[in-house]
Amino acid sequence: MRKDSIHIRILYFFFEFFYQLIGGIGFLLCIYFFFSFDTITQRVVAILSTIAIFCIICWLGDSLIKKLRGY
């Protein structure tokens, strides 16, 4: 592991916290979508679109962290 400055470590901590928060919100949204829609098709579309959006958000955040760290 590289010895990063304290600013980068704090920023990395907040990104990790953000990922955990996004994961919890995504999980709760998937549960909500499962019980709020009537047909299985609506449920699957809503849950898969939620997962895709959260994966894109996490991928963008990960690429930002790599850019900040110089990887």
Question: Secondary-structure blueprint of this entry?
Answer:
Blueprint: H1 6-36, H2 40-69
Helix pairs in contact: 1-2
What keywords describe this structure?
71 residues
The outline comes out as elongated
- The total count of helices amounts to 2
User: Can you write the helix and strand succession as a string?
Assistant: HH
Model regions low in confidence, pLDDT < 50 over at least 5 residues: none
Structure, explained:
The protein is built from two helices and no strands. With 71 residues, it is mainly alpha-helical. The chain has one domain. α1 packs antiparallel against α2.
Summarize the structure.
The protein has 71 residues and is mostly helical. It has 2 helices and no strands.
